[in-house]
Write a structure and sequence with these properties.
With about 160 residues, the protein is α+β, with helices and mostly antiparallel strands. It has helices at about 15-25, 70-80; strands at about 5-10, 30, 35-40, 45-50, 55-65, 85-95, 95-105, 110-120. The chain has a single domain, classed as 2,3-Dihydroxybiphenyl 1,2-Dioxygenase, domain 1. It contains 2 helices and 8 strands. An 8-stranded mixed β-sheet has the order 2-3-4-1-5-8-7-6, covered by helices on one side. The longest helix is centred in the middle third of the chain and has 13 residues, at about 70-80.
Length: about 160
């Protein structure tokens, strides 16, 4: 079964953890100095935030799958749609070891498809990049920046 994934860059991790914990009525499943993640069942979503990156807002979207067969099916769909697939194979990012690949939508929004294999004690395979240096989260392929600014309370929506 798939779990929708959203990763958001935030400027203030503590304030964001407090906000999302109240919004979701749940504490994060994992908290690090630069990262937090909620594994929600209603709705079924893996919602992660980090201070890694250069612009606050949505970093990437994706699907977390339960097994390799589902991951293979997502890769087949991407290839059938003539999408360029960046296969990272087994990699470490966001404090997890996963098998993954990426696709970019027509606007350049990165979509991560991954199967989590285990936790990891570090954010990523290369710890050379620091949040201050603008390290991107989870090794997302480069595309158009997709930071979505937060609207003020008085602005119209939808």
């Amino acid at each position: 079964m798939k779990r929708f994934h959203i990763h958001v860059h935030v400027d203030d991790l503590a304030a964001s953890v407090a906000f999302y914990s109240k919004l979701f009525a749940a504490e994060p499943a994992r908290v690090e100095t630069d990262y937090a993640k909620w594994m929600l069942d209603d709705p079924r979503v893996n919602f992660a935030i980090s201070t890694r990156g250069t612009k606050a807002g949505v970093d990437h979207l994706g699907f977390q799958v339960d097994d390799v067969a589902e991951l293979t099916e997502l890769a087949r769909r991407a290839e059938a749609a003539d999408m360029t697939l960046l296969d990272q194979g087994e990699t470490t990012c966001c404090y997890a070891r996963s098998d993954k690949h990426w696709v970019l939508d027509p606007q350049g929004i990165a979509w991560e498809h991954f199967h989590t294999l285990d936790g990891a004690p570090v954010y990523g395979e290369s710890q050379k990049a620091s949040p201050a240096a603008g390290a991107t989260s989870c090794c997302a392929p480069s595309g158009k920046p997709i930071g979505i600014p937060v609207k003020s309370a008085g602005s119209a929506c939808c």
